[in-house]
Amino acid sequence: MKKQLYSSFLALLFLLSGPALQAQEQPSDKDARMAWWRDATFGLFIHWGLYAIPAGTWNGEPLPEGRIGEWIMHERNIPVAEYEKLAAQFNPVYFDAEQWVSIAKSAGMKYIVITSKHHDGFSLWDSKVSDYDIMDASPFKRDILMELKQACDAAGIKLCFYHSIMDWHHPDAESPKDYAHQNNPDANWARYREEYLKPQLTELVTRYHPAVLWFDGEWIPEWTEEQGQELYRYLMGLDPNLIINNRIGKGRKGMSGMNEYEDAAGDFGTPEQEILESTATMDWESCMTMNDTWGFRRDDFNWKSSETLIENLIDIAAKGGNYLLNIGPMANGKIPQASIDRLYDMGAWLAVNGEAIYATKSWKCFKEGSTYFTADATGKYVYAILTEAPGGPVTLSCVTPSKGSQIVHLATGESIAWEATPEGGLRFELPRGDAFGVAQTVKIPVD
Ligand code: FHN
What we know:
Layout: H1 2-24, H2 27-40, E1 42-46, E2 57-58, E3 61-62, H3 72-75, H4 80-83, H5 97-106, E4 111-117, H6 144-155, E5 158-164, H7 189-208, E6 212-216, H8 225-238, E7 243-244, E8 285-288, H9 306-318, E9 322-327, H10 337-353, E10 360-368, E11 371-376, E12 381-386, E13 394-396, E14 407-409, E15 414-416, E16 418-420, E17 426-428, E18 440-445
Parallel strand pairs: 1-4, 1-9, 4-5, 5-6, 6-7, 8-9
Antiparallel strand pairs: 2-3, 10-11, 11-12, 12-18, 13-17, 14-15, 14-18, 16-17
Bound molecules: ligand FHN.
Residues 68, 70-71, 216, 272, 287, 294 line the site of ligand FHN.
């Protein structure tokens, strides 16, 4: 009875604080809160947990091609009692938080989003609310999230947490319509939400201070927009600087990831495995895999090329979005070399051309032929990013350089001769040489 009274008191508290809290934030306040995230543009997604042990194969049978490794518990309908035995095998002895953060930083990434708890319910931190976590259930007994937090703080990288609302392990979180893993007739969603989901999120926010909470698994019928709105208010009450994605509520329109309606809960849209066709009126971040799976699969070698990954980043930045690019570390704590190689290639490109990506905004036209455009925050410069070596004069029509100005080739630092075109654009030739990598940027002063 006492616990119920306390829960009702909490519920009343959340209700009272909610509307007031939302009413307080002015657009300028939200701009200030989102500023670092909008400037960051490029982040690392990490899907890591017990599913890295089977790595896409269960009882000797691989998942069908294209199926995602972190869903193996559901794909193979593995009973909870069977799946949770993996915890006793999870001993990632090669895990090195500083090395992981250093790789992300070398890639030119400004933030890391790691799965604190994926759908399988296993927690990668020392949770006081659960024993199904890295400290109590595994031989590793180290607080992975705390080690990453310390490494990120030291490196100036923002640490963010993915957290699944759907939970295939907790007996009260049964979603009989979609994901009946325990056939628990006594499943009590409100009890899971109030006595497990929220307390775990409170631990994460008050102990690890993540910059972003990246929710997922919100599509189950037990979760409602109202619950999402209320949770958003509660979490913002814990930390008003938090940024929270739109999967905290029900606003996500399928894989397009953008809000179906204006006041859906959450601060940014989450297109998945796709790039928007154009710019958008709301903040958005495209999350993508490097191969076909989020969680590690030992048999998935369908890696995107570094060129494709770099052009994805350019395309997204030109449309005013962020790129959250995923890696799936192995059960031993190592990151697949194919992922590392691509991250280093992206970092090398950004070391030369990052000025055209970070803290930029979209230009009045984001693409002309195979050339993308961004603009610097002051609006004084436009960056033309040519994703194909032209092999001759380049003519661009949707940017008019300031009269008599110098346009600069970022890869060489050289200014390039140019001439105005009758249409108000410009014509120029890039310096010869194919040593300039995937895409070359020309910085153009504009009025
Ligand atoms: O079901 C998850 C999936 O495992 C993965 O975490 C992706 C990443 O955005 N989100 C869900 C599918 O939309």
